[in-house]
Each structure stands twice: as C-alpha cells, then as structure tokens.
C-alpha cells in the first residue's frame, strides 16, 4: 500500500518534481560509477600485486625445514629500448616441482619462456638486439604470470648448481633478487607492489570523501522537492512513520535505479579505464571489475546511504505538520574548527621525508577533514564580510545567503576546494623529470672480485664480434663499456645482447636503466594524480551543478515572486554567481595554499614546472567547471520564474 | 485625469479556458478596489494583466494615460519595480535577509545607495507596528508581521498602484482584519491606489468599492458610501 502511494508520489510530482527525481538519479549514477572506480582501483592493484608475487621469492625457513625447499629462485632486470624485462631464474631441487603461475610445467634447465609481449618484441626487433638473449623460447607465459598484459617477462630454467643460481647478486630490490631456496613459488607481493597498494588506498580515500558528500546532497534534493506535499500529507493525517517510510522508499527506489545505471556506466567505461598505463602498462579488464561481493556491497550501500540522508533531511517536515520551515538566524559556527586546522597544520613542519607513510596518510586525512570542518565557518565569515561590504543588491543577496546557510554554500564548492587541496599538495610534490644528461651511453656490470680484467677482456671480444665500437675499461669492481656518442638505441641493444650472460646473474645496465624504476614510479604518481584530480573535478562540478539546480528549485516561489515584483533576472543570476564564486575563490585558493604547505616537508629539490602546470590547469578547470555548471542552471531559473503564478506544487 | 489605471476590454484565454472575457475596469487615484468572485473566475488573471505580469490577448491597459500592455517584458519589469507594489499571500520575503533589508531591496534595485535605502526602509517599521523587528528574519516573524513587512516593501518605492492577491489568505480572521486595515491606511497615506483580490467580504469591506468577477466578466460594481 505504501509502495503504491510512493510510486504515485514519484509519478505525480509534476514536471519539477520529476526534474528533481531525474537530477537525483543522475547524481547517484555518477557517484556510483566513480565509487565503483575508487573501489575497483584497489582490487586492481591487489590483483597485480598477487600475480606479481611469485617473482618475489620468500626464502624457505632455514634449519631443518630447509630440506622442504623445492626450488631455487632469483630475479633481476634486463632492459630493451627503454623498457624493463623482469628475468626470473629458476632451478628445481626435486622431481615434480609444481608449475609456476602461467606455465604448464616447471621450466627445465636451459629452457626460456617469454611473455607474449616479449615474444612479440623479440620477433619484431633484429635478432642481435633482443632475440639472441633468449634463444629458442620454449613457450609463452600465461596471463597469471603477468602483472599487466603488455609486460615483458622472461623465465629461464637452470641446473641448481649453475652459476646463475649460486653467484651472489645485488640485493638492491630495484636491481635484482639474489637466489634463494623456496618451498613454494607463491612468493609475496613486492615492496613496490605494496607501495602502489598504499597509494591506491590514499587515492581512493581522496576520491570517496567528496563522493559521499555529493551523494548526500543528491539525496537531500529529492526530499527538498517533497517537503511541501509531504507536509500536506501530514495535514490530512498521515502518521510520521508513514511519511518517513514513503519518502525514504521513494529516495531509495530512485537511488537503486541510479546505482544500477552507475554500475552499467562503470562497466561500459572499463575498457577505457583499462587503457590508463600504470607500472609500465595497461590493465587486464578483469582486474578492474570489483569482486561480486564488493559490487553487491556498493549497490546496497548507495541506496542505504541515500535513504539515511533522506531521513535526516525529513526530520523537519515530520516534526512540524505545517511544514513551514522556520528560518531563524543560524547559530554561529565555532572558531574551534579553525583551531583544529591550525593544530593539524602545526604537525606538518615536524614531518620529514623519513616519516612513515602511515603517519603521513593520517596527517593528510586529518588536514583534509579539518578543511572540510573549517569550510562552512570560513564561508560564513566571507558571507558576513560580503554582506557588510555590499553596495548593490546582488552582492547583498549573495552575502546574506552565505551567512544564512554556509553549509550548503560550502557543499557547492567543497568538491572543488578539496580538489584544490589535493592539487596543491601534489602540485608541489609532483616530481620533475630526472635530469638525464645526454651523455653517451655506458653499460656497466659488476664483476666477481679478482676477475675484473678477465671480464673486461671478454666484453671487448664480444662487442668486437657483434660489431659494436666501444671502449671497455675496468672501473673498481665493475667493467664499463662506453659506447661513444654515435651510439643509438639499436646499438645499445646490440651491445646488451652481446654482453648477455657475461657475468652470470648480472645485467649490464646504463645509468638511465638504473633510474628507470624510480622514474616509472614518478610517472605513475603523475598519472595517478591526474586521475584523482579528474575524478574530483567531475564530482565537484557535478555537485556544483546539482546544488545550483536544487537551490533554484528550493527557492522557486520566492524567486518567482521577486521576478513578478520586477526584480531583474540578471540581479538574481549575479547573486547566484557571486554566491559560488566568492567562496570558491577564497576556499579554493586557501585549500591550494594549505595543500602546498603540507607538501613542503616532502619536497625534493625545487618546484617542478609540470606540477605548476597541473596546478594551473586545475584552477582553470575548476573555475570553468563551476561557472559552467551554474550557467547550465540558468534556463531553469528562467523557466521557474517565468511562471506568472508561482505556488508550491 | 485622476484615473490611474484603466483596463479596457481585457481578454485572456488559456487554451479552451476563457479566463477573462472582456473586462473593463478603472481605478482612480487613491482608491482601494476589492476584486471578489468564486474560485477560478479569473481574479488573479485580471490582476496579472493589470499589473503587466501577463499580456492580455486583447484589450488595453493604461497607467496614467500610458499604454503598458504592449511594452516588452524588460520595460514592464522595470515598470513593476518602480510604479507598482505587490503583496502576495506568502513567500515573497527572502528568508535570509533581515526584515529591513527585505524592505530596502526594491530601493537598492532602483539604484538608491544602501545606507540610504536601509534608512528609508526603517521609517516604515514603527507606523506598521513593527518596531524592534528591523533585524529579524522572516522566519522569526509571525505570519501577520511578515505580511506587514511585505506591505512596507510594496510601498517603499512610492508606487502608483499596489496589487495584493489574497494578502490575508494565510492569516487568521483577526490578524487578517488588522493587516487589511494597515494595508488600506498605508496605501491611502501614500496616495497610492490599491487593488486587492480576496474571498473574504470582511476584508473587502475595508475597500472603497468591490467589483465581482464571474466566469471572466465583471458582474457588479458596487460603490460603498
Ligand atoms: N497558467 C494557466 N494555464 C492554464 N489555465 C490557467 C492558468 N492560469 C489560470 N488558468 C485558468 O484560468 C481561469 C482563471 O484563473 P484565475 O487564477 O484567474 O482564477 P482566480 O479567480 O484567481 O481563482 P482563485 O480564487 O482560486 O485564486 C481558471 O479556470 C484557471 O484554471
Ligand atoms: Mg487567484
């Protein structure tokens, strides 16, 4: 019975009621899609970390358990052009060792298995540049062995007593993993993978907070539409319980529809999202789908949250059957909020680059929350100043409105302002490109002690045989082959191929190779920043649009009557614009400064141009988006006020 | 020449509905006219046509000898702002503005500097029995007090005509009477004419005369002694 009434409420809401319903549905769909994205990002990095784990061996416990060891595993990085190739060296210690992930069986000594992308590249490049390093590949690695579809991976089988499996290697994790006995090939996610997971978590928190705010605003939108008619229902004797049940049911039906639409949008966007390169490559589409449980969770949680917001928004109507919201001077927000922000900010200069990630994350989250707390207070303050200083009617209206409801004004701009915080923080941190001097390439490989001259001699011979001109010189513990200024990428790869296996278990690398992992992380941080900022902006602009539309709908009667009494539409419009732009300027600017301030302890060297450009683009995009969203609601204002006899519907 | 507002042969249709079927009406300077009639008879439509809110389909409206129904929306809007005042049933005050700024708003829209506008607005409060209510916001006023603020707002620009559509519709009997008395007295005091749409004969009794609308036509024009 209630559902039936609810359904009629949705349908019978009239054109404007229906508009509110559509706006809510759209807003919920957008937030659900983005929420799924934020959730999926974590699953995606988890999936990558899990699949890459087998290459990061866990040593079998020493002592008697050591006899349980089934294999020896080691890894290192090889390079081709500017891409890294993780090379996994494996040797079985027993018969019937289980197959590693993505392989039908354990590789026999001398066998080479390549990932599909590496096999393909080996076919494309001349053999003396890549293929000769991994001769006669035995097979192709399956997806379960790969972090991402384009990854270049080689697995090489050895005898357990081969030099590759016994000689010492560098244990710097960005260069190699020394051979260890393992009792299983499960491994554990690498430190890098864990770092990515942590960053993904921080990124999704940065995205989810504004999303929740946005969803709440959307829910209030439905309720605002219903206020009047629900009050009428109360007058004819509906019990508060019935009124609440009906409205909440209505909000939740709409939210569920929106959530389903959002899930569909997300599913359609997955192929696009899968193209975003991270850790050197795009994604398996499967990685980006959250688990069915998480999906179900989101689809249940979104309507529930919307329902809760609806209940909160309804309290007023239920309390007073007259439904005439008493608008009183709102209690002033307390200065304590500002103090809280200062306290949190005071912590930041104490942090250093050495501080644990956890503490930094907590401090950041606190700063974020405090900005959100301070927001309404500052907006109220700005409102008082604006109202006091106003000479014309538009400014006066804007200022008074900010004072009247700083929270809702803050909701309009909070998305963009909080994004400003993120942009300020990341903008300052955004690393510049590594200053790679264009020096002629040099391949360097560490030689076993006492064999430096001998290794240098062999390198000289191999390079000569391959037709590569190079000056080979021993240098302390290493052998250095300088390729001369005319060497191009192809020559470099010929030299690499010629020197393959020169020192078992070690790869000759250039300086650029050694910095590759570092610069890859920096690139990824930059890509991640852009993704997070794009999402935040999408949310921010959508919520600015939604709040603009809903504030017009809320005030349509007053706007309409003002218009009848001859108030020019431009004045109302200018007031509305000032109402968002003034707080946006102050809060957005303030948030960028606070974000930048928080970043100072972690800065490396000077501010990078890229960071500043990102920041500038954010500021422009933010303003343009919010102004655009406001402008879009102008026709709505016009149509609402064009009604010659405005009355509550 | 003391005819302030003249409507001639006003016709307004909404699709099939004939809301006004040729109405002639004249309002003289300082006169208070009540428009009565059953629901749906066309009272509000008549008011809207006279006030330049709606364009009639046929007929003319003259304000002090000047034809206003043919003007463009922009001009009519300016006219409403400067020459007319409006009091509606409720909801016309901006909830976030203190009462005095609600009253000052029309002056500011007309370009009066803010301090002067607020000073002029304040002068209205005591005579309307709103002393000490200057800085209260509409939500902190009773319905009757809010209507009195609306009356001040309608009169502050010294309009030629004040239009009121069921100004006491949301008030109880006694408060309605009081508000109506204040509305009539204040408009008279300011040499403005008044056109009030109402259902309540007691409210109409405050006016100089009552015209009755039925099915879009005037049926009687009673002048009270
Ligand atoms: N915007 C409109 N669109 C269509 N029909 C309208 C519109 N406005 C009024 N009408 C119709 O015109 C007729 C006159 O309406 P009007 O609002 O003038 O009546 P009223 O006398 O003011 O009634 P009430 O006392 O109930 O306010 C009615 O039949 C109404 O349905
Ligand atoms: Mg009417």
UniProtKB/TrEMBL annotation, chain A:
Keywords: Cell membrane, Membrane, Transmembrane, Transmembrane helix. InterPro entries: ABC3_permease_C. It comes from Nonomuraea turkmeniaca. Residues 202-316 form the ABC3 transporter permease C-terminal domain. GO terms for cellular component: plasma membrane. Its main location: membrane. It is found in: Cell membrane. The keyword Oxidoreductase does not apply. Pfam families: FtsX. Signal peptide: none annotated. It is a multi-pass membrane protein. The chain crosses the membrane at residues 21-45, 198-223, 243-273, 293-314, 335-352, 358-387, 408-429, 530-553, 581-604, 610-632. This is FtsX-like permease family protein. The keyword rRNA-binding does not apply.
TrEMBL record, chain B:
Residues 5-225 form the ABC transporter domain. GO terms for molecular function: ATP binding; ATP hydrolysis activity; transmembrane transporter activity. Pfam families: ABC_tran. Keywords: ATP-binding, Nucleotide-binding, Transport. One of its GO terms (cellular component) is plasma membrane. Gene3D superfamilies: P-loop containing nucleotide triphosphate hydrolases (3.40.50.300). PANTHER family: ABC TRANSPORTER RELATED, IMPORT ATP-BINDING PROTEIN. This is ABC transporter ATP-binding protein.
